[in-house]
Amino acid sequence: xxxxxxxxxLKGFHKMLLDHxxxxxxxxxxxxxxxxxxxxxxxxxxxxxxFADLGTDYHEQELSIGLIENSEGTLRAIDAAxxxxxxxxxxxxxxxxxxxxxxxxxxHPIKKNRLKALPWARCCITCQxxxxxxxxRL
Length: 138
Ligand SMILES: [Zn+2]
Fold this sequence. Notes:
Layout: H1 7-44, H2 51-87, H3 112-117, H4 125-137
């Protein structure tokens, strides 16, 4: 498989991925802390005057746990992208253009603009749309 990017370009993507990873990892820890602290606070609260606040606390807790899940999905995608930089397959789409094709297809590249906007993208925009469409049909 031929390399799609120069060393400098790969370095740039590598840095972008690491920066995002760091930011996300920081966010996840912060959110986990908040969620855990809320749980502790709620458990320690027996005072009836605090009952009115519990609703919003629980709501916020669910909200931060949702954010953690989303960030972890992105973290996994970032790790996968970093691995692809290492093994030289970065920039190739993981999707398949034509599901009905009988022969194995050559991997096709993701457009550079898409990677610059979303360095951990696993598929080109065409495959992404195809997947979304088939997900909607289910
Ligand atoms: Zn594709």
